[in-house]
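Changelog-linked ticket: arginine example.
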Amino acid sequence: MKDSQARTIYLKDYQAPDYLVDRTDLTFDLDPHATLVTSRLKVRRNPAVARAEETLPPLWLDGSDLELLSVSVDGELLPAQRYQEKPGGLALSVDRAAFELEVQTRIAPEANTSLEGLYLSNGMYCTQCEAEGFRKITFYPDRPDVMSIFTTTIVAPATYPVLLSNGNRIDSTTTEDGRLRVTWEDPFAKPSYLFALVAGDLQHVEDHFTTCSGRTVKLQLFTEARNIGKCAHAMASLKHAMRWDEEVYGREYDLDIFMIVAVDHFNMGAMENKGLNIFNSACVLASPETATDAAFQRIEAIVAHEYFHNWSGNRVTCRDWFQLSLKEGFTVFRDAEFSADMNSRAVKRIEDVILLRTSQFAEDAGPMSHPVRPDSYMEISNFYTLTVYEKGAEVVRMIHTLLGEEAFRRGSDLYFERHDGCAVTCEDFVVAMEDANSADLKQFRRWYSQAGTPVLEVTDAYSEANGEYSLTIRQHTPATPGQNDKLPLHIPVKIGLLDESGSPLPLDTSGREEMVLHLTEAEQTFTFNGIASRPLPSLLRGFSAPVKLRYGYSSAQLQFLMRHDSDPFNRWDACQRLALDSLCKLQQQYRAGAALESPGTLIEGFAAVLDDVTLDPALVAKMLSLPSAQELAEQEGDIDAAAIIAVRVFARDAIAKALEARFLARYRALDRRKPYTPAAEDIAERSLKNTCLTYLCAAGNADSLTLAKTQFERGENMTDTAAALAALVEFGPEEQSENFLEAFYQQWQQDTQVVETWFGLQSGSAKFGTLERVQKLMSHPAFDVKNPNKVRAVVAGFAMRNFTQFHREDGSGYNFLADQVIALDKLNPQIAARLVTPLTRWRKYRAEESGQIRAALQRISDSGKLSSDLYEVVSKSLG
Ligand code: ARG
Ligand code: ZN
């Protein structure tokens, strides 16, 4: 728990550091209860802020949960009156402009359940320092604009044969008492958040990569012995990412060694520490038998993401944490493009847009709404958000769209060259993009400072006499907490026009069939000439801006776009709109107490999609997936959870029954039983096959359940096995479901990752994931409340992915979540603050639910002293 509970930090208060640290030499004498940390720093007054003949200001060192043993300056023990321990750190009075400071502290990794700083995971030491974890290791100016050359010496008993840190290993010896002593040096200056240390009894796989300039880089992936067979996919992904960054961005790796370590206890996905990336094992380890296609693709993306940070994050880093999106938004954009190049571009885009629409838009509309570059925070860990990451990536994507591929590359080249070795701001990024291209992004900058999701309303007009077609677009952004008045944004709207045969129309005299409209005003009209008949517009192609688009498409027009749009993303989007329209209509019927009518147009549309064998099967699978309950909830105020659940089930079952023969035909055709590969085409086929299987089982025919049972028992790969099991659990007779679940557990209980899948299958099940079952899972021997992956699988699986059970009318789901959040806050504040998210949306629900959710939130608030993480989220949500 931190002492800084209610303190708000503002971007406008930023001040450059008083002192710089040229060198940082750390020595760790590892012990679970009493690790001794000796830090020797070469400190000097920051010339950028020094004035002539000044009295030197005190040196502030951040520190939290540390036991201070001694402080010396230039080799002399500092008397106690020269320093003062305060909440959050140490203030030292300074009498010279440059000096060597030595600080000794003692820490207890064993007792560290926050998974920030130095901690133990399955007996192995590891670190997580971003954003402010280094201050839990030693007293230090723990801010990203203080960059230093680090050397790290680790001393540990021989039972920890692998001792790792950043950079190159420069020394390794055995001490007189038989312990190991290893020293690492990182030649690149870095902020403390990129520091890492690992110590354990680990195995590794090794490979190498030859860079574009011909250097050989050693690649090592470390893991516990039992997982050594699960490293191949991550290693292959790493090599692809290294090559891609050379080819697409001209970025070469800079050290002679690149290491990845897998750890089981980790708050996030992974961390880009210089030369020593540390990964949540779920985001790096995979084998066909144990990991699903989704996991394979996630691993490829995250390995690339962390690798790309070596340039966008490490070589060029952030000045302060308000600039987090500088590295995260840019790096997410980079990894998304990488994944698009490695797999199906359209499908990757669809997945990212679904995440934005369901979760980022909800964040924008909720109490924690903030701009891509926040103005203030209480706890920076709470700002590792979908807004900073995903919307931040959309902002970079829009720059790419506005400038074009080549100009964007000129901008990124200039950015890396100009700021190499520096800690900079989002503004510096935009300026580099402008300077390299003499572009004007003045108005565009508002995307960084203005929160909320813009709404675009589009109308059109056609004059047959003049052959003139015009699109009028109005934009407005709803108010968000602390920001009532919004200014018009510079929005790239990519469009095309279709004639009545579905062919693209030339948009101007150059004959181009697609263009980017620059919407800069609150209302603007764009005119096209020489249009022979009324066209159908295809708007916001590829989701060219993170906005809500409204245009009054009829069902027939949507079906037409589904068939003819040359933009595959928009074909999918037309299908989604058709589904959304149908589900909204059903909701009206439900709320009016009327009988629900079969969604005929949607069924027709789906039938056409299923019949089109020329479409990428992965795209078909996406088109046939109904919008999630979360996404439906996002559509409206006054959310009626029961209505959403009822109409989704109704529509799904109606589609399943009406198209059963088609689903079966495609299932059969795709059930090819090839040996597993994670290649995009194979993943595509499995995704459509399993979509068909789910609909078949929903249709309720006993033969379909037999198909699922056969697929489950064949157990050829985890994608097919888990999909079959999910269908059996959801649609099969209850007793049998129990047996299948039990059989699955018996087979896989040794594999912690598969057990997480098994937990998630149950907690997220509309039918099986009852509160009672979730509570039972929490006392299962494989559950570990100190392991975030387990908590996410069971508790978040229920609260965030099980709309049906979580929103049960008696409010028991909300109360359960409140209990878990209160308990977890004592162990791991970051996880507690994330888990509370569903409760923060109380204002969006109708009165009954709203009152229940708010009461649960209030109970958390009243439960005692909260961590700063949880306090910030809860107080802002109640306020
Ligand atoms: N920089 C890491 C990543 O790419 C995330 C670190 C998150 N740390 C935290 N305390 N929230 O993407
Ligand atoms: Zn990142």
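Closing comment: Example verified and attached. The CA atoms of residues 62 and 89 lie 4 Å apart. The pocket of arginine (ligand 1) is lined by residues 130-131, 268, 271-272, 305, 381, 384 (CB under 6 Å).
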